[in-house]
Write a structure and sequence with these properties.
- α15 runs antiparallel to α16 (424-436).
- The model has no long low-confidence stretch (mean pLDDT 96).
- Helix content is 28%, strand content 21%.
- A hairpin with a 2-residue loop joins β19 (331-332) and β20.
- The strands form seven sheets. The chain has an eight-stranded mixed sheet with strand order 15-13-11-10-16-21-25-26, with helices on both faces.
- The protein has 16 helices and 26 strands.
- By secondary structure, the protein is of the alpha/beta class.
- It folds into two domains: 3-181, 3-Layer(aba) Sandwich (Glutaconate Coenzyme A-transferase), CATH 3.40.1080.10; 197-436, Acetyl-CoA hydrolase/transferase C-terminal domain (Glutaconate Coenzyme A-transferase), CATH 3.40.1080.20.
- The chain is globular, with a radius of gyration of 23 Å.
Length: 447
Amino acid sequence: MDYKSEYLHKLVSADEAVKVVKSGDLVHYGEFMMASHVLDAALAKRKDDLAGVNIRTVTCPFMPQTVINDPERKHFIYNDWHFSGTSRKLHDKNLCNYIPLNYHEGPSIFDRGFVPVDVALIKVTPPDQHGFVNLGTSNSITHAFCDAAKTVVAEINESVPRCLGGTRETLHVSEIDYFVEGDNRPLAQLPETPISAVDKAIAQIVLEQIEDGACLQLGIGAMPNVVGAMIARSDLKDLGVHTEMLVDSFVDMYEAGRITGLRKQLDKGKMVYTFAMGTNKLYDFLNSNPICASYPVDYTNDPDVICQNDNMICINNAIEVDLYGQAASETSGLRQISGTGGQLDFIYGSFKSKGGKGLICLSSTFHDKEGNLQSRLKPTLTPGSIVTVPRSINYYVITEYGIAMLKGKSTWQRAEALINIAHPDFREELIKEADAQKIWVRSNKIN
């Protein structure tokens, strides 16, 4: 049977396809923008036929109908490997659970059988002339959980960009059990994040750490986007890209001539990433573009791969950092905000890179719910907060007040360096707390 005939033979309605799901099954949705609202809606309609279906996803961009239809979680139990804004809201209502993960280990969790998958529900491009569908903007762990799944169902969506590899960016028609033709809804776009003066101040300090030929990893948020905009307007040359997430600012840097990848030691000339989220500018740039290379996350995020490129500059956000250098980037107390993701992977990998720098960036303060100014640099982390980057691995911390390098420093030297970049209104209080914690020396001097 040729692939066209095989495709037509496997083509069914969404309602028919999700009949493969049985009570107690583990169902894995597609990741990020490749989650299928079509298959989710069809599965939600089967609520009364099912019980205890365990749904897993990675940063789903929409509110799942399966959760909306089952607020008591009798039929569907929803989980996320890395929280989106939607998952955060659901977690606050006890409707979503987080799955702890060092991102580069994701595929091996399926390969080693730790998570048996019954059904994979994904979104892909139409088959090409060779019978291959493309995984679109999310390579990540998708191929791994599809390999592990007993049944794979794919929504065909003509709006999905064909993202070149790399490796494992495709599945053949023969590897998929059922196809569903969706509504070709365009991919969700990330809203524009407001940029503050503090973001710009931090980005300026970050920019000073970047040299010609550096290789970049940027996280999500306003500040990394500001860094990208500043780089696009700079005179930096021959920058490379080896990142977890590809965002719009990489397009700006490339089109400004800042990115060539010609000084990379690995994947020379390629912008390497494992998933992409942004606007249509990014999705159009990715479509059939050979400058971009989509890889599974056990390649992009493996510290032993990351470090093979010299001068890795890895830029990530945090919620708070304590005076010992521990970074909490995924929870605020007991509230799950995000996930470990690749932050630990890239901070560790950057240190192993010749000339590399791993940067944890955060504003020095925030306003709480009552409008009171609070410091993000804490004597100790807020009770219940999860350590994302341990003090033994954390490298550089940046606020709008400067940069603190933590490697090789004792506890009192770390406290001094971090208090130096705290908001001036909180420095005396932090000194008192450091002294009480026996991580202060009288000869310390604060700028």
